[in-house]
Amino acid sequence: MVEELSVDGFAPLRIKRVVRETSDAVSLVLDVPEDCSHRFRYKAGQFLTVRVSVDGRDLRRCYSMSSAPVAEELRITVKRDPGGVVSNWINDTAAEGDELHASPPEGRFTLAEGVSSPRPLIAFAGGSGITPIMSLVRAALADTARPVRLFYANRARGSVIFSEPLARLTEQHADRLTVAHHFDEDAGVVTATAVASFAESAGDADYYICGPAPFMDTVEASLLDSGVPKQRLNLERFTIAEVPPGVTDNTDEACEEIVIELDRQKVTAAHRQGETLLQTARQKGLKAPASCETGSCGTCMARIVEGSARMRINDALDEDEVEEGWVLTCQSLPTSRKVHVVYE
């Protein structure tokens, strides 16, 4: 049979069930067409890029799987976000039988060394950051003998996503799973002391952190101060990073020429102020690869061989890749008079 993936890599997924997790969060259980099911195999911690049409606009957003790959139906969980067009649309209108279009799973927030690592898994989740963490926890408990410890922070008890599933997992794996709930309404925001206390005596462990930026910054700084090696920290950021103070989309030296190589084509374009390298490629008629367009998946990565560019957001490339010249073209703005970029 011919795969049902569209030209831009999206497939229609039917909503099998809608599960109301809290008053402002919903899970969608998705049915993947048989003819492209192999394209939707995923690792715990990965996400889907979902494309929906709202008020005549095609919009794309990334949502993590909250299910685990082993013997579970594909499920994403979406929390309502004030001002969030797609998250609010899903929470308000998504219904059983509806279709969403999604591209195959992506993301690097996965279990280190797959599921074979013997190291303990220590996870810190804040609010909806529990979504990929839940996938990781479920996979680790199902596929390994690793001990798992979860620190889960929420503003209040009523905002705890997966309250009942976590309670069941704790009961089923009492010898391996420890869950500590933190409520801001009782204890204030999470402090570095609380983080260090929870991670104390963890030994040689793998750490996973996901949630609001201030929460993640506190956890990361506390763990590093406690002596946890940076390579043991795995972070997944949901929010768009703010542009650092003093940095704008303008450059001191205006870009005059962009050279782009893709699929044996080489084009030269004048740069339009404020446009990313991906937008420039599209302006020249190139079918440049892209998916999430939020700086999260890495699909649009290319290498700069001459000149320089600044990424507004980078949640996909590591430091070594950036040093080698790789950029996310959907987030890259030129910072030199000439930029030569190659899609490899």
What's the helix and strand layout?
Blueprint: E1 11-22, E2 25-31, E3 47-54, E4 57-64, E5 75-79, H1 85-93, E6 99-106, E7 121-126, H2 130-143, E8 148-154, H3 163-172, E9 177-183, H4 184-187, H5 192-199, E10 206-211, H6 213-225, E11 233-237, E12 257-262, E13 265-269, H7 277-283, E14 301-306, E15 309-311, H8 319-323, E16 326-328, E17 332-334, E18 338-342
Parallel strand pairs: 7-8, 7-10, 8-9, 10-11, 12-18
Antiparallel strand pairs: 1-2, 1-6, 2-5, 3-4, 3-6, 12-13, 14-16, 14-18, 15-17
Describe this protein's structure.
This protein has three domains: 96 residues, Translation factors (Elongation Factor Tu (Ef-tu), domain 3, Beta Barrel); 117 residues, Rossmann fold, CATH 3.40.50.80; 86 residues, Ubiquitin-like (UB roll), CATH 3.10.20. It contains eight helices and 18 strands. InterPro entries: 2Fe-2S_ferredoxin-like_sf, 2Fe-2S_ferredoxin-type, 2Fe2S_fd_BS, Beta-grasp_dom_sf, Cbr1-like_FAD-bd_dom, FAD-bd_FR_type, Flavoprot_Pyr_Nucl_cyt_Rdtase, FNR_nucleotide-bd. This is Flavodoxin reductase family protein.
Please, how many domains?
3
What's the tally of helices?
Answer: 8
Helix-strand string: EEEEEHEEHEHEHHEHEEEHEEHEEE
Mean pLDDT: 89
Structural class of the secondary elements?
A: alpha/beta
Q: Roughly what fraction of the amino acids lie in strands?
A: 25-35%
Range of helix content: 10-25%
Specify the CATH class of the largest domain: Alpha Beta
Q: What can be said about the biggest beta sheet?
A: 6 strands, antiparallel
N-to-C CA distance: 30 Å
Uncertain parts: 240-252
Shape: globular
Strand order of the largest sheet: 4-3-6-1-2-5
Radius of gyration, in angstroms, nearest whole number: 21 Å
Looking at CATH, the homologous superfamily of the largest domain is Nucleotide-binding domain of ferredoxin-NADP reductase (FNR) module
CATH topology of the largest domain: Rossmann fold
**CATH architecture descriptor text of the largest domain:** 3-Layer(aba) Sandwich
Number of strands: 18
Protein name: Flavodoxin reductase family protein
Pfam families: FAD_binding_6, Fer2, NAD_binding_1
Keywords: 2Fe-2S, FAD, Flavoprotein, Iron, Iron-sulfur, Metal-binding, Oxidoreductase
Organism: Mycolicibacterium gilvum (strain DSM 45189 / LMG 24558 / Spyr1) (Mycobacterium gilvum)
